[in-house]
Write the structure tokens for this entry.
Amino acid sequence: MDTSDIGNRFGRLTVVSLSRSGARRALYAECVCDCGGTKISLLSNIKLGRTSSCGCIRREHLARLSAAKVTHGMSSSPEYRIWGGIITRCFNAEDHSYPNYGGRGITMCERWRSSFEAFYADMGPRPGPRYSIERIDNGKGYEPQNCRWATPREQCRNMRVNVFVEYRGSRVTIAELAELTGINRITLYWRHKKGWTGDKLTSIARRHT
């Protein structure tokens, strides 16, 4: 058995021993958590970040959300659920969405994180059931200057995986270019993939308008 991971630290956990168990002889790690607790989990889950504490991260997260419920009386509102979801994916390393948010440096400003009332005061009520929160600049975090309520269609235009091109002096996404020109967006995407970027792509698009 390779014991090189003994003594290594993953999140809040430090591996103190390894053992195999079960019919498949899976490798388990016994760990000591920073808080003093212990945790036994599959070593693979620990190394992949799926388990990063003895459970104290989740307890701390739930305690913080519970404390925020006391004063505002909106704990059943969609705005509160959205606020709580942001905190979870930005700060709970054991949440499945964390790698795409907190794991890549996306956080929430302290004003919002410490107060749902501040979040609600800055964002206002959600305009309708189809709206959710959107970061205007996907490289930045959740803060008043970078967030707005948006529909799924509006958010798709702002996804960090979108391809942007120049069209008549403006920077637009492939989806927006498809709407402007009437050309199927898949067609435009593959033209772009073939290298038809910039002026060449927009000049071709213009002949179809």
Notes: Strands lie at 9-10, 13-21, 26-33, 38-42, 132-135, 147-150, 164-167, 170-173. The longest strand covers residues 13-21. Residues 56-157 form one domain. Confidence is low (pLDDT under 50) at residues 205-209.
